Amino acid sequence: MAGAPPEPLLSRAVRRTWGALRANRWGVAVTVAAYLVFSFIYRHTETAHTPGSDGHYTWLFARSLVYDHDLDFTNDYALCGDPYQRNVDRGTGHPDNPFYVGPAVVLAPILWTLRHVEPPPASAPEAERAACKGPLTTRTFAVGAWLGAAAVLLMARLGRRFASDGQAALAAGLLGLGSSLPAYAGIFPAYSHVYDTFFAAVTMVASLRAAERPRSAPRWLLVGLALGVGVLQRPVSALFAAVPIALAVSLLWRQWRALGVALVSMGAVAFASGVAPQALVYRYLYGRWWAGAPPGRYFMQYAHTHPWLVLFAPHGGFFHVAPTAWLAVAGLVLGARARPTRALTLGLLVACAAVVWLSAAPLDWHADGTFGARRLTSLLPLLAPPAAIALAALARWLGARRSRAQVALGVAVLVPVAFTICGAAFGLGQGRVSTEVGLSQENLYGEGDKVAWGLVDDRVGDLAIFPAELVYQLRYGLPRTSFRDATEPFYERNYRTMAWRANRIPLGDARFEHTLRGMVHTKDGARVVAPRASALLSVQWPYATHLVVTAHAAWPTRVRVGRGGVLGVTWYGEISVGDHDTDAPVAIPAGGFDSGLLELVFECPDAADARLFLSSILLEDEGHYGPPL
């Protein structure tokens, strides 16, 4: 009997594609939803269509490659502007650009195509014809929504290896839509972060695929390629190599030849596709093969890193804008306990911890104007597997008893509805919700949510970072709700010019109302009412040689000044306070100062009787430093 005729190639491809879509329908659904969200945000945000701020300089890499076929930014700055005055020649004859060449890997081909297929008319303004703004940038940056959605799809594929399609899709959706990714896919596509996140996701998928066939050198070559392109997006992404290295070592332990082939293959391609091109860019712009931190020698403060603030501070903190990442924290614990996922979990932990540590080392650890911890956006793909592991474990726990699932469903429906409606009811008494006209959704539900969240802010604190605020309360004895004010930096210095942005700390500032202990806050300063009092604030610049306290008392009084720490107080010395505002200096000993959270302690046994009043604190640094650039 003759065999059945071979299935046509096209028919086989369609059948396999349809089968893959059906097997991963929830992953596809959440990807489509993510794209619709990201593209809607982009289309309805006019400012996103023109590269601005840091993204302006990242865009100039793509523009210069397409229009000038080089990376000399002289004419680019002349045509498109230089809002942050980066046009500095460091001796190479080529103007500075301290941002990232990597996004040009994606943007330059799109811009080149659009320039030749749909060029602006000759009558268009020069800035539009030069792709500084206008239709060319609008169409090019639309890729941000596609890359963001592709990252979500890859996160779902990562989670699919450890959970069902629905659970993996839910993990990807929670991380992709409940984090900073929508902002950088839709609002800031000129920044490097959506590109970095996409290539991080590619690296993770390639790593897990290589782990399925660990003796396949081509698969490790693909991992190296993804890593290398990721390094071009942001050099810190080289730390993602911890994941494939952990997998290779665990799977090929004692198979030294195969392990060597895997590591060498991966490393060689990563070097050729990422490290070497980046080094050539640095050499061309700065005259050095590795420029360290191009923003200047003081930008990275490796001895003064602040991971606690980068993870938890309301300004620039990771968990504050990505609360769904707590799910991945639980998944990392579960993954470390199970032998099949232990090596992967170890690699993820090392990579995440290293990226957090380095991302907390810049002088502006809060990243200035930012939505969430933008420098940690690329960690989202690394969190997808543990998030899926956690959801799978939760599903098993709920499925063990029917009543658990019923209660969980009831809570999931009741809590958000009751939260909003009860908030609206409370808002009636404040006049924020009307009873005289038909209520719009914005008024009923929007104001209801605002009122309810306002109550939580005032009475409880920030739920997304509640564990950190609880630790803060226990450590400093201050209200949890003051964590936000305590983490806003005061003592700031421009790392490029070394000019002070602010070094006088006015204790009458409203932010000190709840960050003082043993003092009573007034609009003019703080009245000391306890023998030992303290003021908590965040400082950015990590060096100070002395401080000057502006204070007065009813009669001449001695006050001891120091810095509070976990192990006690480091005393700086004593100051004399007279009966009118006196500037009293005190030297800070070597090692007695640091950036981040700073607790200044004031000890005066008769402070209350002497009516000791502190107006302000001036921090000074008389150290001698070389040129920043």
Question: How would you describe this structure in keywords?
Answer:
single chain, 629 residues, alpha+beta, 7-stranded mixed β-sheet, 6-stranded antiparallel β-sheet, 24 helices, 12% strand, globular
The count of strands amounts to: 13
Radius of gyration: 28 Å
Give the N-to-C terminal Cα separation: 81 Å
The number of helical elements comes to 24
Helix content: 40-55%
Largest sheet: 7 strands, mixed
* Low-pLDDT runs: none
List the helices and strands and how they pair.
Blueprint: H1 9-23, H2 25-43, H3 54-67, H4 74-80, H5 104-117, H6 126-129, H7 135-141, H8 143-160, H9 165-177, H10 181-187, H11 193-212, H12 217-233, H13 242-251, H14 256-286, H15 307-312, H16 318-321, H17 325-337, H18 339-359, H19 380-400, H20 402-428, H21 441-459, H22 466-476, H23 483-486, E1 489-493, E2 500-502, E3 504-506, E4 516-517, E5 519-522, E6 525-528, E7 532-539, E8 546-552, E9 557-565, E10 568-577, E11 582-587, E12 596-603, H24 607-610, E13 613-620
Parallel strand pairs: 1-7
Antiparallel strand pairs: 1-2, 3-13, 4-7, 5-6, 6-13, 7-12, 8-11, 8-13, 9-10, 9-12
Structure description:
The protein has 629 residues and is α+β, with helices and mostly antiparallel strands. It has helices at 9-23, 25-43, 54-67, 74-80, 104-117, 126-129, 135-141, 143-160, 165-177, 181-187, 193-212, 217-233, 242-251, 256-286, 307-312, 318-321, 325-337, 339-359, 380-400, 402-428, 441-459, 466-476, 483-486, 607-610; strands at residues 489-493, 500-502, 504-506, 516-517, 519-522, 525-528, 532-539, 546-552, 557-565, 568-577, 582-587, 596-603, 613-620. Strands 1, 2, 4, 7, 9, 10 and 12 form a 7-stranded mixed sheet that branches. Strands 3, 5, 6, 8, 11 and 13 form a 6-stranded antiparallel sheet that branches. β9 (557-565) and β10 (568-577) form a beta hairpin. α8 (143-160) runs antiparallel to α10 (181-187) and α8 runs parallel beside α11 (193-212). The mean pLDDT is 93.
